[in-house]
Specification:
Strand order of the largest sheet: 3-1-2-4
Helix content: 10-25%
Structural class: alpha+beta
């Protein structure tokens, strides 16, 4: 499903999506094709559900967005790893 379709189905709502197809470009992650997991009225509940899904299925990409956003893009953070005491 494309973002424009999600916006038409769930206007002015919070949605949790699973990325089916995505790509990275210049530090941004773009979701090209997605599946709707759940719709929410509240951003906190959407974030909570998204975090639970990510913990239970870490190999999948889950995000939550408000459908008023013009596009689905995520700023990527570089993983620095865990530093231990030497």
């Amino acid at each position: 499903m494309k973002w424009s379709e999600v916006q038409n189905l769930y206007p002015n709502e919070w949605v949790v999506i699973e990325a089916i197809q995505a790509h990275s470009e210049e530090g941004l992650r773009f979701v090209d094709d997605m599946a709707i997991v759940q719709q929410f009225d509240d951003s906190f509940e959407a974030m909570k559900q998204c975090n639970e899904l990510q913990r239970s299925r870490p190999s999948n990409e889950f995000y939550f967005f408000h459908t008023s956003r013009p596009r689905v893009e995520i700023r990527e953070r570089r993983w620095l790893g865990i530093r231990g005491r030497g």
